[in-house]
Write a structure and sequence with these properties.
heterodimer; A: mainly alpha; two-stranded antiparallel sheet; elongated; B: alpha/beta; 11-stranded mixed β-sheet
Chain lengths: ~90, ~475
């Protein structure tokens, strides 16, 4: 590789724009998954989940069903999660 | 040149309230005149409607998110024209429900319906609207259409929407009335806008109107009925106080207003293992099965969300996504234009809501412009989000939905829209209160006993859509009162 060779202006623009577009797409891709609960909500979910211990997938399925029936759900990004899923997958 | 008319009753406005009052008073042989500010021709651009300039604030406050205000005060919805802004009404009906009368909000304890009831006008109004579908009970409709409605969780109920077969076209109705040539039989005048009042010892005895050519019309009458809609009813009620050199009573909430927040497509989902009954998924074509005179009309059963007294309500309607392919293409481009993508799923959820009364939400009248500062309580959005969660949980747990997805990202666990549309129903601008501070239960102005202010402007709480029936009922109550007094 010739270290003395200077980068062409055309290549510079190409790399710069590619990086910019990539950053733009990544921003949109990950924006959906942002979790920004306030302290009170965090505490509420943790307290609720502390009263049960979900160890297996089978238990999780039951807990999800219970939470859906009892309005123990929350929106994260664009999706609906149960408190059980938030605790089990460590989303907080 | 001034044109003078003397009648028993003068109705101002040809919208649904003007129409209902006109029909009722005519049937009882009351001599009346209806005066409409708009022309027969519907304005096609803003320049043709120079008298009406309005503006709104750009954002609705919410302590969680800035929400773009898209209130429809625009040219499209506030047209001065014969038949009013509902001249091209499409026959969309929402019945009276218990919740219409029973909402009480903190800080607005007297701003409630109290003993006022509309139920007895149900049949009369449906006939006036050419929509004789008299049985609106979801259970009965479901039975007649062989649908089985699944049980709902607490806080959600079924509610029925109806679309008439041959909807009433108000403009056509009035045009036929205008064809009456004989001057002494003429009872509708168009193109004259209300400008002033005529008093005799503080008693209102006449209204002064002017057309675009500067010709004046003075109507002297025993009774007057303002049927001009939320904004104009408030403008002239306020003006009436000013004309008598008085201030509107403190705490009357004159010129406050509530909107119908339309959140539109809030979420989407794909078909689950089970299908929701057809009558819930989309409009259902009905025939004489529902009612003898209901021929090829349409019905839909939606979800009503309400926690009981003191919370705003909402309806959640499920619609089939007709433009799935088109939306997919649009959604590829939209992020690059900084626009929000449309949930591209089998079904979309459309949400329309009530709002709590709010003192910060008010009309401001300037000489050539009307400003609408629309504000909603932040906690209203928490209720809307909660209702959506309940519906989503119901759909998921019963295997009616998979891939449930919001239109925009949630904030702090709540579904809060990025923009919100007003339903062009600026309600409660001259609110009825149980202490009768502005108007009484017959919609008579306390300050002017012979003047009635009717329509959605008189609503103490807005209820949730559609307000047509309730607005018309206020006009019929006032008309009944005039008949009794005549």
């Amino acid at each position: 590789m010739d270290h003395n060779k200077k980068i062409l202006r055309r290549d510079f623009i190409f790399y710069f724009l590619s990086a910019f577009i990539l950053a733009f797409l990544i921003k949109y891709k990950f924006k959906e998954d942002e979790i920004n609960f306030d302290y009170e909500l965090n505490k509420k979910i943790k307290n609720y989940n502390s009263s049960r211990d979900i160890k297996s997938k089978k238990e999780l399925k039951k807990a999800i069903e219970y939470d859906l029936k009892n309005n123990k759900t929350i929106f994260v990004g664009k999706k609906l999660y149960t408190f059980a899923e938030i605790g089990y997958y460590g989303l907080l | 040149m001034t044109w003078d008319i003397k009648k028993e009753v003068c109705i101002v406005g040809t919208g649904f309230c003007g129409y209902a009052a006109y029909k009722k008073l005519k049937e009882n042989n009351i001599k009346l005149i209806v005066v409409e500010g708009g022309e027969v021709k519907t304005p096609t651009n803003a320049e043709e409607q120079k008298n009406y300039k309005a503006s709104t604030n750009n954002f609705i406050s919410s302590n969680k998110k800035r929400i773009k205000n898209k209130i429809e005060i625009s040219f499209r919805d506030r047209q001065f024209t014969l038949g009013g802004s509902s001249a091209r009404w499409a026959g969309y009906i929402k019945p009276f429900e218990k919740s219409t009368f029973t909402n009480v909000f903190e800080g607005f304890e007297e701003q409630v319906w109290g003993g006022v009831r509309f139920d007895k006008y149900n049949e009369e109004i449906l006939n006036l609207l050419n929509s004789p579908n008299l049985d609106f009970s979801p259970e009965s409709i479901a039975k007649k259409t062989d649908s089985k409605l699944p049980n709902l969780p607490p806080g959600l109920e079924y509610t029925v929407y109806s679309w008439a077969t041959t909807p009433l076209r108000l403009k056509e109705y009035w045009i036929n009335r205008l064809k009456i040539e004989k001057k002494d039989k003429k009872d509708v005048i168009t193109g004259y806008k209300l400008i002033d009042f005529k008093f005799n010892n503080e008693k209102l005895i006449g209204l002064k109107f002017r057309n675009n050519d500067g010709q004046e019309l003075i109507v002297e009458a025993k009774y007057f009925m303002f049927c001009m809609g939320g904004i104009e009813n408030a403008r002239f009620t306020k003006k009436l106080f000013m004309a008598k050199k008085k201030e509107p009573p403190i705490n009357s909430n004159l010129c406050n207003f509530q909107e119908h927040p339309h959140l539109y497509y809030v979420a989407g989902f794909n078909k689950g293992e089970k299908l929701l009954p057809k009558i819930i998924r989309n409009r259902y074509n009905v025939s004489k099965l529902i009612h003898n005179s209901f021929n090829n009309g349409q019905l839909n059963i939606s979800f009503k969300a309400w926690d009981g007294i003191g919370t705003p309500k909402a309806t959640l309607m499920i619609q089939e996504n007709q433009n799935k392919f088109k939306n997919r293409i649009k959604n590829i481009i939209k992020p690059f234009l900084n626009k929000i993508t449309i949930p591209n799923y089998d079904y979309l959820i459309v949400m329309r809501c009530e709002q709590s009364p709010n003192k910060k939400s008010n009309l401001k009248f300037e000489e050539n412009k009307t400003s609408l500062n629309w504000d909603i309580e932040s906690k209203d959005f928490s209720h809307y989000s909660d209702y959506l969660r309940r519906l989503a949980s119901f759909l998921i747990i019963n295997n009616y939905a998979k891939d449930f997805t919001l239109k925009v990202n949630s904030t702090n666990g709540e579904a809060i829209p990025s923009s919100i549309f007003g339903g062009a129903h600026h309600m409660g601008t001259v609110p009825y209160t149980t202490n009768n501070i502005l108007i009484n239960e017959k919609f008579r102005l306390t300050e002017n006993d012979n003047t009635y202010v009717v329509g959605s402007s008189a609503f103490p709480t807005s209820g949730f859509e559609n307000p047509t029936l309730a607005a018309m009922a206020t006009a019929l109550i006032a008309a009944d009162d005039i008949i009794l007094r005549s």
